[in-house]
Design a protein that fits this description.
The complex is a heterodimer. Helices cover 0% and strands 58% of the residues of chain A. By secondary structure, chain A is an all-beta fold. The chains are: A mainly beta, B mainly beta.
Chain lengths: 111, 116
C-alpha cells in the first residue's frame, strides 16, 4: 500500500496540553497536507507543506517535514475540546496518480 | 458548512435499486473527486475528473458509474450494490488537478450509504 502510516492511532489529552501526531510515507513527494475530520463529516484542509520546506506554522498548528526520513509531524498547541477529531496526513507524490491519505490519528481532548 | 454540497446526506437502498449521489461546487474548481470511506479508515480514492473528463478510475466496480455534467456538478450513479458497499461517500474538489499544482482538496460532508 502507498498509504502513509500515522501514529499514534489514538491520542487522549487534557484541554490545554499539546498534541503531537506523526506521519510516515513511502515515496518521494511534491507536498504533504494535513486534514481534520470531525465525526460523520467531511475532511477539512489544515495546512500544506512543500517538499522544500522544513517547518510551517498556522495559528496553533505547527508542521514539520523531514524528507530524508519520509516523515512529518503535526503539533497542536494549547488544545481545546473542539480539536477532538481524526487527523489525516495526505501526500502528493512526484510521480504516479494517487493522492494518498495516511491511516489517521483519533484525537480526544478532555475538557 | 462546506462549499461543496452533497445530496442526499443519508441513503438506504436495496441491492436491486438504482440511485444517484450528487455533488455541487461553485468555487470554479476544475478537478472533482469521489472518495469512499469506511468507519475508522482513511478515504479511498475512486474517481477523479479533470476539466470535466474522467482522468482516474481506481479499478472501481462497474456498479459505480460517475458522471460530470459540467464543471460544477458531479454525480455517482449506483446500481446493484452489495452490502459491503455501505460507507460514507465523499466528494471533493480542487482548484486544479493536484498533479499540476499545490491545490488542497475541499470536501463535502458526504453521503452515508447503507445497502440492505
Amino acid at each position: 500500500s502507498q498509504q502513509g502510516e500515522e501514529d499514534p492511532q489514538a491520542l487522549s489529552i487534557q484541554e490545554g496540553e499539546n498534541a503531537t501526531m506523526n506521519c510516515s510515507y513511502k515515496t518521494s513527494i511534491n507536498n504533504l497536507q494535513w486534514y481534520r475530520q470531525n465525526s460523520g463529516r467531511g475532511l477539512v484542509h489544515l495546512i500544506l507543506i512543500r517538499s522544500n520546506e522544513r517547518e510551517k506554522h498556522s495559528g496553533r498548528l505547527r508542521v514539520t517535514l523531514d524528507t530524508s526520513k519520509k516523515s512529518s509531524s503535526l503539533l497542536i498547541t494549547a488544545s481545546r475540546a473542539a480539536d477532538t477529531a481524526s487527523y489525516f496526513c495526505a501526500t502528493v507524490p512526484n510521480t504516479g496518480n494517487q493522492f494518498y491519505f495516511g491511516t489517521g490519528t483519533s484525537l480526544t481532548v478532555i475538557p | 458548512d462546506t462549499e461543496v454540497t452533497q445530496t442526499p446526506k443519508h441513503l438506504v437502498m436495496g441491492m436491486t435499486n438504482k440511485k444517484s449521489l450528487k455533488c455541487e461546487q461553485h468555487m470554479g474548481h476544475r478537478a472533482m473527486y469521489w472518495y469512499k470511506q469506511k468507519a475508522k479508515k482513511p478515504p479511498e480514492l475512486m474517481f477523479v475528473y479533470s476539466y470535466e473528463k474522467l482522468s482516474i478510475n481506481e479499478s472501481v466496480p462497474s456498479r459505480f458509474s460517475p458522471e460530470c455534467p459540467n464543471s460544477s456538478l458531479l454525480n455517482l450513479h449506483l446500481h446493484a450494490l452489495q452490502p459491503e458497499d455501505s460507507a460514507l461517500y465523499l466528494c471533493a474538489s480542487s482548484q486544479a488537478p493536484w498533479r499540476m499544482s499545490n491545490s488542497p482538496l475541499h470536501f463535502g460532508n458526504g453521503t452515508r450509504l447503507t445497502v440492505t
